[in-house]
Amino acid sequence: MLPSAVVRELDPDAVPEGRRPRRTARDWAVDTCCFLMVVLLYLVTAVSLVQHPDVPEGLVVADGVLGGLSCLAVWVRRRWPVGLAVAMIPVGLVSSTAGWAELAALFTVAVHRPFRYVAWTAGATLAFAPLYYWLRPETGLPYVASLVFALLLTVCVVGWGMFVRSKRLLMMSLRDRAHRAETEARLRAEQAQRLAREDIAREMHDVLAHRLTLLSVHAGALEFRPDAPREEIARAAGVIRESSHEALQDLREIIGVLRTGGSDDAAGGRPQPTLAALEPLVAECREAGMKITLDHRVADPGAVPASVGRTAYRIAQEALTNARKHAPGAEVTLRLTGTCGDGLAITVTNPPPESEAPPVPGSGQGLIGLTERATLAGGRLQHGTTPDGGFEIRAWLPWG
Question: How far apart are CA 234 and CA 238, in angstroms?
Answer without folding.
Answer: 6
